[in-house]
Amino acid sequence: MSNRWTGAQQRAIDLRDTNILVSAAAGSGKTAVLVERILNLLEYDHKDIDSMLIVTFTNAAAKEMKDRIQKKLQSRLSELMRSGEAFSENDREKAAFLKKQIKNISRASISTVHSFCIEILRQNFQIAGIDPAFKIASESLSLILKNRAAENTFEKMYENEDQGFLSLVDAFGGAKSDRGLLDQMMQVHRFIQAQPYPQEWLKSQVLSYQLAEPDESEEKKLRAFSESIWATEMKAQGRLQLERALGQCEKAIRLCSRYQNPIPYIENIEDDKVLICEILQSLESEDWVQYHDRITDFRQSRLKTVSKKSAEQCGYDQAVLDRIKDIRKNGIKEEVQSLSKVFSDAGMIQLIDDISYMHRHVTSLTELVLEFDEEFTALKKEHGVVDFSDLEHLALKVLEDDGVRQSLQNKYSYIFFDEYQDSNLVQETIINAVKRDNNLFFVGDVKQSIYRFRLSDPTLFNDRYRDYAGGRSTSSEKIDLSKNFRSREEILDFCNLIFSKIMSEELGEVDYSDESHQLVAGRDSKGYDDNIELAIIERNPSSSASSEKVESEDDEDSSAEEDTAADRDELEAIYCAQKISRLVSSGKVRYKDIAILMRSPKNKAKLFEKVLNRFNIPCYVDFRSSSYDRVEIKCLLDYLRIIDNRNQDEALIGSMSSAFGGFESEELIKIRTSYPDESFYSAVQHYSREKHDYTAERLKEFFSQIDTLRIFEKMWRLPDFIWYVVETSDYAAYVSGMADGRQRMMNIRSFIEKAGEYEESESMGLFGFLRQVDRILREKGDSPEKSMLTDSEDAVTVMSVHKSKGLEFNTVFLCDLGKRINEADLKSDIILHNRLGIGMKYRNSEENIQSDSIPRNQIKMKKSLENISEEIRILYVALTRAVDRLYMTGVVADADKFITKTMKGDIDGNIRKHKNYLSWICSVLVRDASGTVLRSRNQDVLSEDEIFDSGFKYKISIYRAEEFEKTGLKKDRGLEELREKIYAPGDIDAAMLAEFERRSGFRYEHISDTLTPGKRSVTEITKSYIKEETPYAGEEIKINRMPVFMQDKRLFSRTEIGTIVHMIMEKISIRPHSTESVSQEIKKMVEREILTEEEAEAADVAAVSGFFESETGRRMIESGRVYREKQFLMRHEDIIAEGIIDCFFFEDDEIILIDYKTDEIPDPEKYRSQLELYRNALESIYGARVRETYIYWLSRGTSTKM
Q1: Which stretches of the chain drop beneath a pLDDT of 50?
Q2: Can you say whether residue 1133 is alpha, beta or left, with left for phi > 0 and alpha for psi between -120 and 50 degrees?
Q3: What residues contact residue 435 under an 8 Å CB cut-off, 6+ apart?
């Protein structure tokens, strides 16, 4: 972006002595404006950096902010120093001041709220009542302490025979345990941490259920309800929906009245209108019984008949008739009847009595959560740790001290708050405690508030925006930055088109019709064709009713049927792969310029990766699932479970069939069928004792090893023991040889680190650790696996929309648009809301009655709207990541049926009813003049007056699944197709039929020979070429090493050191290097968790720097096209060879191939066959000649030309 600021930007930079809220649209340069304002305060106003509090959302953002400010200050200092003879005394003073700011930047208050709170607590620990040497609890330790606190709390309640607690267990514990209540307790405790004073907030919720006693009069009960928060919310929500229903009535009446003879339906609509007005009158007068009865009794009159003949005579348009019917059913009727869901098929007085009855449950739940909080706090104090919630709440406690608060107010002349839309009430309260009257500068965009699941509260931004915009304070001003300097104008037009129709104050919590919220092009860009496309992929247009149910909007989980999910996801991935291949081959973009975004890539990211790899497209999946969900960890866990307790059938089968046991499926079947009536463990024990075959001997050996490990487990530290299991079983070598072997080993190391963290806080050994893991898996917790991506890699990024926030990509693919938004939080027995409080189901254990309640239903309706609003904002973030190209994809079962659904009703209603992004986008585009592709699927639904003309360009394509199957990825139906042809209706040739049956029934007698693996690594292949008489060829020299637990420092084998060096050569930046620069880059790899500190120490820095100083290294640096760690598959003789090429680069369109070796004694002939395979693979893939091939001997710093 140019430094020529817009008027709004300049005002945000220059304005002084007032509170400022900058509402900055996506790509509007908000961070640049914030930094420039800070620089101007430093340079021109001579304010010290120490006098500023700059709050960012993440530590990474804080570091980037510091770096930006420091570089800008250094740049301005350099300009000043270059003035030569013109360098005045004033310039000298200014230079000295800038040097001081540069020096102080490292200790400036540029941090997250949490870091700011730590600073407050370190200086005022005595007021907070904590240990001055407090530590921040790791995620694992926090979870351990939380679970222990939960167990202690429940044990105490059971011991005390607390009746309120026991009633809660009966009501919310679950069918066979108290697990349900424990989960609800944890959920409530987590939720209240977003309140400044969580205990007080929780206690206050009891009052909202304290209405009237059961024996009091109905009049008193109704009066008490009218004064409750539930009545206030019911009135507000009811008024909103009833007025919307009246609006639908008016729309239908206008359609009826457009003809000289109004359509007879008008009488029915007028009847509806009268009934709705009566309901609204009851609501406004707070006659709750009447309102209840009128809502639940609402029935529409039978629609007047309009015959085909009368319609033709009066000139009625069939599309208009259908539209009125649709409005009456899906607009008027649905709006009114959805309000009746609040009442749960019970009378009004009964519902009020239910609320009063639940007062005891809310009271008991509050006491339970407070008891848990006290127990959890005690455990944290015992361990000398605090968690992130404690930081904020303890800082608030400190800030209640007048002296501390005044000191901070005096210190900070200016307070900056970046990403303000993602703050919560606790953080707001902290900032309000240290602010002055006119020193606040907030920057954010409420349209990008997408962290409600982390308890952020976008209403804080909106409230401040309204206050500042309304001029309620002379010392406050809001500034809108609408110009987008990121995206092409066509993309901005498309975004404005979509969000002007779907984002409102009610849905999205932003009035996008206000021009201040719309995107304005800030960069010059020439348009080009097809840079925006919506691709609707039709999976199965002739699907059955069951298949259609997959797309049903009324289905609670219409994300997919399991048997079709893979196929559906693969269709989108193939579309992306084809498009990417064309874009990259045309030279328009590089792989690294492309991102594939999904709302939730958890179940789909790996499938996309697989398809992209089949198209030879390098990709990086930036979605990190729990490391405990990884196959290498699951296998290890099964084995550890058997070591702890072998009588576990599922774990026993898993460990026996994994690399730890190595048993074949046939052996497991043989054991099972030999003793079919016993548990698998018993069958194994009997088999090993009673049989005398090879399998029985292997079983004895398997369990003998487990018995030995059980002894070691009692003697050693837990992490050392697990390392011993991994290394002595050759599991490390097995995992390293798998696809993504390095990543998998990192996951195992991370797993063992967690075992160490557990042992530091618990003393229950392997048994306790496995219990802890089981809890984490139940709660879907655990930290993610570690990332290995570096900036220099040319690869397509696959990531979630949340991960993409703050980023931009030249080309964006937004996929999985057809997935229904997640509303799992609305299904819980207890639902929470920051304003309405606690909403729980009515559960009466004494009378065995359960039903929904007014509080829970009111909160459910409110949160449903908030969820939709959040999803609209997530869609906004996704679409605004694109710079030049935007492609959107979604899969439907039947395009015609899907598009017809989006035509019915209106856009607002469709957003509420059809809860997926694809329906929302299509509901808009189908009504745009440019959306003819969609309307052509059903011309008779929309009337002419419902079509608008945006004038914007975009492409809509509807693809059939078969079009993607033509890519060569189609499943082979061979025999199935032949059978269909032979058995087709008509004359059947008996001889041909007999021959077909003979051939199709053929069974190969040597089927076992076909089980030999058809895919082998290059290393395996080349080993077979080494002559048998070569000394030690193919042998592994084993060295007796000291056990891990006895080593002061971990020892690395030569092979492991070679792997470490290869990792460094893959990740290090391509530029001239010295030993110092290599050491710095290795240090960064440790920080990014690519290497451990031990691995970094073992690395041969001189060998790496020596390569870059060699002639081969210099040639690589000078090349513009360098590839490292390139995976490939190719046919070699009668098998598929797979391998990874260390490095190659292009010179004059020819390839130079390099292979790194760490051998102490160079023997190039040993690798000739391997390099020949690499050469063939490269020439086949790139169609270019491999001109030269080198082996670079890292240990000697020399190269051999092959």
Answers
A1: 1-2, 543-566, 781-788, 968-974, 1012-1015, 1024-1048
A2: left
A3: 409, 415
**Distance (Å, whole) CA 898 – CA 904:** 10
Instruction: Specify the pLDDT at position 1040.
Output: 38
Q: What is the pLDDT of residue 537?
A: 93
Helix (H) or strand (E) holding 440: strand 440-444
Q: For the beta carbon of residue 721, count every other beta carbon within 10 angstroms.
A: 24
The answer to whether residues 765 and 718 touch, using CB atoms and an 8 Å cutoff, is: yes
Per residue in 735-757, pLDDT (tens digit) is 887 776 777 888 888 888 888 87
Closest CA to 879 of 957, 799, 809, 950: 809
Pull the structure tokens for residue 557: 């989980």
Q: What is the DSSP letter of 850?
A: E
1106 strand-pairing partners = none
**Cβ(1200)–Cβ(1164) below 8 Å:** yes
Strand partners, 534: 888, 956
Amino acid found at 389:
S
Q: Is 54 exposed, middle or buried (0-12, 13-18, 19+ CB in 10 A)?
A: buried
The Cα 596–Cα 612 span in angstroms is: 11
For 702, the token pair is 């398997």
In the chain, the amino acid numbered 605 is A
Output the DSSP codes for 323-369: HHHHIIIIIIIHHHHHHHGGGTTS-HHHHHHHHHHHHHHHHHHHHHH
Of residues 325, 337, 311, 333, the one with CA closest to residue 252: 325
- Residue 288's pLDDT is 95
- Which residues, other chains included, contact 530 with Cβ-Cβ below 8 Å and sequence gap of 6+? 955
Distances from the Cα of 1029 to the Cα of 1032, 1033, 1038, 1166, angstroms:
9, 8, 20, 13
CA angle 1027, 1032, 1034 (to 5 degrees): 65
DSSP string across 861-878: HHHHHHHHHHHHHHHHHH
Q: Are 801 and 538 in contact (CB under 8 A)?
A: no
d(CA 776, CA 764): 17
With contact defined as beta carbons under 8 Å apart, do 1142 and 1062 qualify?
yes
The predicted structure's pLDDT at residue 1007: 56
The pLDDT assigned to 623 comes to 63
Name the nearest CA neighbour of 822 among 863, 878, 775. Answer: 863
pLDDT one-digit tens code per residue, 671-722: 988 888 888 889 999 999 999 888 999 999 999 988 888 888 888 888 888 9
Residues 6+ apart with CB under 8 A from 1183: none
Reading the block at residue 477, the tokens are: 């001003």
| Beta-sheet pairing, 837-840 with 796-800 | unpaired
Q: Which residue has the tokens 């267990």?
A: 169
Element at 223 (helix H, strand E): helix 218-226
What are the C-alpha distances in Å from 943 to residues 28, 306, 500, 545, 904?
39, 18, 21, 29, 11
Cα angle 211, 216, 218 (rounded to 5 degrees) comes to 85
CB atoms within 10 A of CB 8: 19
Cα–Cα dist 1108/1103, whole Å: 9
- pLDDT at residue 145, rounded to an integer: 87
Contact (Cβ atoms closer than 8 angstroms) between residue 796 and residue 618 = yes
Q: Do the Cβ atoms of 889 and 815 come closer than 8 Å?
A: yes
pLDDT reported for residue 970 = 41
- SS3 at position 941: coil
> In sequence order, which residues have a C-beta less than 8 Å from that of residue 1198 and are 6 or more positions away?
1162, 1192
Q: How far apart are CA 608 and CA 753, in angstroms?
A: 31
Nearest to 956 by CA among 537, 573, 535: 535
Q: Are 539 and 892 in contact (CB under 8 A)?
A: yes
The pair of structure tokens assigned to 127 is 């007021």
Closest CA to 258 of 929, 902, 944, 906: 944
